[in-house]
Amino acid sequence: MKNYLKNTWSSYAIALVLSYMLFIVEPINLFANNLNDFWFDLQIILGPSLLMFGGVFLAIVILSNIIYFVNKKVFKIYTIILFICFLCTYIQGNFLSGNLPVLSGDVIDWNTYLFDKIFSVVLWLIVIVATIIICKKVKMDNYIKYGGYITIAIFLMISVSLVSTILTTDVLDYGNKEFISTATNNNLDKYSNNKNFIIFLLDAVDSKTVSKSIEKNSEFKDTFKDFTYYPDTMSMHPFTIESIPLILTGETYKNQGEEIKFITDSMKNSQLLNNLYSKNYEVNIYESELFFYDKEALKTGNIVNEKGIEIDNIKFIKQELKYILFRYLPFFVKQYSKIETMDFNNTKTEVTISNKFSVEDHDFLEYMNTHEIKKESKNNFKFIHLMGAHVPFNFKKDLQFVESATYEDEVDGCLHLTDIYFNKLKESGVYDNSVIIVMADHGFSYNAAGSVLPGRQNPILFIKGINEKHNKISVSNKPISFVDLNDAYKDLLDNKNSSELFANITNDRTRNYLLYEYGATDHMEEYETKDKAWETDKLYKTGKEFNLK
Predict the structure, then answer these.
(1) pTM score > 0.85 for this model?
(2) Structural domains of the chain sorted by starting position, each given as residue range(s) with its CATH number in brackets
């Protein structure tokens, strides 16, 4: 037994630390560094992580024992190979992960990472060659022993780092809340025969692209003939999670504390929502990822408490594995992780809530096709957020699913979907008595590597007031900012039409915009312009930065 442990302890140490690094440390780090992107808490993530850790560790131990008892010399070679794999994986995931693609949902062009692929190959070659040289100079047994010591040292380093992460983030407190808001389809087919206020938000629809689409497709001119179009509209944030609260509350997130707390507080104090409640509107918010963690959310007609949700462990493990492989595999095989985005929403069981709202355009289209509009007397507010022209691009103007489409195809499909929705409202007699705002949370712009560029600052904005009628689409060249929306909401609720909005805005105004990378909200840089929203080259840094302390 003593000889057995002496000969195998390094192999067991490598198996233990490798499993610990990949399936305990990495999931906790992923969670701690992306708290604002996840609905679950630490308790939920630990279960699947422990299953993976235990399963992989046990598998390696069993394989080690089989090889050991079959051939002890082969076992030594196997242990050296295991150490090489562990060391390279550790270096790849902890020191060479700074240039990983953005997980935005877009298809990753791995061909743009040639240098990183070469660097990964060089890393493995260096470690392998160094191992061969060292093994020639010292006995194989000594190399294995030293490899075990190095493995223990790495274990101590990543453990210290893990403890630091836990102590310096809200990972232990996050999710320990009484309420987790979840949007359902409740009341999606209900409208008022008195007054409706509808914000129809199509994700990532760019104003310049829509202008071209309307010019190219005459039917879209008819779709928006009762609206005023504001092509010179500037958003404040390049991403959805910060844009939606601004649209609904008028509050701009600039790293003034924990983002989830900011969103919850701003939703509770929203001028728009409180004004709607005071005017006897039933409020419905159809948004699948709104972090409104307070019982105040129950004042809406369609949000329910999903605290205590159960997960499908297998689905959850698959999501975790995709990211672990994405981070730790050598660059030349990372593409086989099959990752484009992180989607833990699909890991929820359907036991608790069976009619969750889906942001998918085709799900909304199917809902419209299978549900007739029901009218009631109470005023009705609807905020409906759909995927719009967000990546991946897989439908065209006719809304038929395709494997690959262009951004322009997707925009045409969005406008066609909007036309179908308007016709549904018209057929039911609730179009005229509705304020309707068609907008996007941000525009669209990515480079080949997936890094965010200025250019997402110009989303669409179309507005129609109650009983507003035009012979053709009206176009206003006013320089609008998302910070102006609350004043427009108030005027629309007071029965003003779209031509009466934004009266105090001058053409020489200065507008601001915040730029940051996807998943790196903690560092924002402020830009400003007095020019058109789509003129990216005329956005200038103000020198102000907003960093999360």
Answers:
(1) no
(2) 2-168 (no CATH), 195-309+353-499 (3.40.720.10)
